[in-house]
Amino acid sequence: MNEYWLISAPGDKTPQNTFEKLNHATKNGNDKLSENFKFSIPDLKVGTLDVLVGLSDDLNKIDTYTESIVRKTASTLEDVLETSSKGNLSENLRIGGDIPPQVYAQKFTWDLAKYPVKQPLRAIADVISKDVTHIEEELKTRYNKYNNLKGNLQQLERKSTGSLLTRNVADLVKKEDFVLDSEYLITLAVIVPKVLAEDWQKKYETITDKVVPRSSSLFFFNSFSKILTKKCVPTLQHYTKATNFIIQNFVLISFLLQQTSNNDEFKKKHFTFMIYLQGPLVKWLKINFGEAFVAWMHIKALRVFVESVLRYGLPVNFQAMLVRPIKKNHKRLREVLNQLYGHLDSTALSGDKMSAMEIPGLNLTSSDYYPYVFYKITLDMLEPQRI
Predict the structure, then answer these.
(1) 223-229 and 217-220 strand pairing
(2) What Gene3D superfamilies does this protein's entry cite (predicted)?
(3) What residues contact residue 60 under an 8 Å CB cut-off, 6+ apart?
(4) How many separate helices (H) and strands (E) can be counted in the chain?
(5) pTM, whole model, 2 decimals?
(6) CA nearest to 168, candidates 267, 263, 245, 255
(7) What tens digit of pLDDT does each residue of 255-294 get?
């Protein structure tokens, strides 16, 4: 289960007592309703009420944006890993190189070096937003470059393995199939539908009187070569438009062979360059997934802090907790939490939630408002968050 509930409740004598009460209440006999973890938030600068109210709305937007970048980075990494065969996604989604996202969330501690607590809340939020924006911009640049190269290779692959309508016949022909260095004659490659192959053999000599008799020969499946004078090329082109015969790009064999060589070399260079790009790209995605995820958890911490102060007041005394519901116990767990914290706001349980919705800065709907601070976190990085 990758669903977590990030909640907070006022400190009961001490925050530790609040956490112990939650642990005791979520034990259902020998079974547990949830696994519970402390979500440690340091003493941040509170600021004024106006700042908290305004910041609450902004943090909601930054939270949504940051989560989208986390998921986009993860999905991009999955795409590149499928191409490069460098392991599965779960093995590569790590924080700081070796910590799974779930473990990081469960053991969350504030990064004091990266986000000094002496800074105002607004300044911390701005730094996080700026960092995530930089990740998104670089992700677009790197992935677009990679995708363009991947698209070129796929196009070359289609030309070499697709149907004869899209495939370059240059790698199918032989030198002896063509008349070379002739001043008057040219060899054309014509694609003939299989059902019309017999019809082609009967009619090709009568298309124009400039066709060399018995010059048609099968060189690849239902592709034929034929010899005619250069002056009658337009006549043949006009004829094929009125039939199901298709003239491939006809060029002298010397150019065809050169084109084949160039395509092979071009494809080889592209493939080599793509492999060259994959390693650094995978490394960058792994590192920056971790950076974006860390930023996301700090935004969650800021949201919990701001809303807890708005709800529970000063002095700051609350305990943030990460709750992982045990499978099939969601409903029972919600009932237990309501029993524990229902007294904090009886309107949240009465069905008349309009007064709760009027609290400035909370930006909640009736469906996600509870007597306690609550945010759902879904750590399945390949699916959109379920709300």
Answers:
(1) antiparallel
(2) 3.30.70.100, subunit c (vma5p) of the yeast v-atpase, domain 2 (1.20.1460.10), Vacuolar atp synthase subunit c, domain 1 (3.30.70.1180)
(3) 303, 363
(4) 11, 10
(5) 0.72
(6) 263
(7) 344 444 455 555 566 556 567 678 889 999 999 999 999 9
